[in-house]
Structures are given as structure tokens and as C-alpha cells.
Amino acid sequence: NAGVTQTPKFRILKIGQSMTLQCAQDMNHNYMYWYRQDPGMGLKLIYYSVGAGITDKGEVPNGYNVSRSTTEDFPLRLELAAPSQTSVYFCASSYLDSSGPYGYTFGSGTRLTVV
Amino acid sequence: TQLLEQSPQFLSIQEGENLTVYCNSSSVFSSLQWYRQEPGEGPVLLVTVVTGGEVKKLKRLTFQFGDARKDSSLHITAAQPGDTGLYLCAGTAGNNRKLIWGLGTSLAVNP
Questions:
Q1: What is the signed CA dihedral for A64, B91, B105, A63, rounded to 10 degrees?
Q2: CB B42 to CB A4 under 8 A?
Q3: Are A94 and A31 in contact (CB under 8 A)?
Q4: Which distant-in-sequence residues (6+ apart) come within 8 Å of A87 by Cβ?
Q5: For the residues A75-83, what does the mean pLDDT come to?
Q6: 3-class DSSP state for residue A26?
Q7: DSSP 8-state secondary structure symbol assigned to residue A28
Q8: What pLDDT digit, counting tens, does each position of B24-42 carry?
Q9: In this model, does residue A98 exceed pLDDT 70?
Q10: Which of A52, A62, A73, A76 is the most buried (most CB within 10 A)?
């Protein structure tokens, strides 16, 4: 019963490097999300997906890209890392019922430092 | 812009005390969720409320959704150190598929 699995847990990048944050869920949820969390700023939505092959921008998409080739996987790509991307990144998944997104499940996060 | 304001921002209490934290908005929400986040972990969903006036209990935690569905409260009875964490509320409105998040209440329960 893994839920949402994120890798890696920690990473240090140099400015200008690229990396992919991995996210996988085993609950057959249609909806998946990437958030970043900064102290005092709350959770900010980067990108989300309503199903395989469909992605859309959230509040803070600049500098990031996503893909959703399967229901299970939703990787987040950072191109040309910048210090402003130092943050904790969370992947989440949910399903949808009549009241909206339901049953949000979060991964344990990836702590990224760009130096 | 729909906002969720949480208060207080920080709360430090002694074990055994009772407390209430609040989540308020000027907008109507179709559902509202409460999460607890411990250091180094992702938020964990505690409860979802969908009906105005609804009250849900989870052991020593009592959640209430306001009659007008614009606000919610979380009451903890006889707090324990294990209740320490960041409590987040998040809501959905209409057909919006994205959650609107509050900034959280950071709770410390001292032994």
C-alpha cells in the first residue's frame, strides 16, 4: 500500500543543471499534482494533470515541465536550475467526486537545494 | 481571488490543554479539507467536510464546517505532544479542480 512515492528525497544541484523529480502512485487516481512549499508561503501549485496525456499549468509553472504518459507516473523536470527553485517539492494525487477533488494523498517530498 | 485565512499562525500550548484553530474565507466552498503536516513529511488528510453545519470527530479532534460554508474550525481536546505539526485547511469551490490552500497553523504541544 505505497500511495504516492517520490524520489529522490534530497538533492543538491548546481545553477544551470537539470534534473527530473519522479512521482508514482498506485491508487489509480486520475488527478496528479506538483506543489512547492516555501517557508511562510504555503503550498503553490506548479502543474497538474487530470489524466494520462493531459497536463496544465498551475500558479508557478515557469522553469518547470511535466509529462503524464501513464496514470501512475507524473515526473517534474527542472531545466536550467536557479537558486529560486530551492524548495521542498510535493507530488500528490486525488480522485474526483461531485464535490471536487477528493482523497488527496501526498508523497513525502523532495528537498532541493540549488547552489 | 479566493483566499483561505488561518488563525492563529502559531500556537504553543502545554499538554492537556484544549485549543481551536480557524480557517476563514469570504467565499463559499463546496468542500473543505484539513491536513496535518509533520516536519520532513507531506501533508496527511485528516477530514473532508462538505455540508454546511457539518461536524466530524476524529478521536480528540472535532471539525466543523460553517453554516454558510465560508469557514471551518478544528478543536483539539486534551492536546498531546503527538498533535504537534502544521495544520492546513484547503477548499474547493464550484467546478474548480484545484484546491485553494491556507498558510497553516503551526502547533507545538509541550510535555
A1: 10
A2: yes
A3: yes
A4: A36, A37, A38, A112
A5: 96
A6: coil
A7: -
A8: 999 999 889 999 999 999 9
A9: no
A10: A76
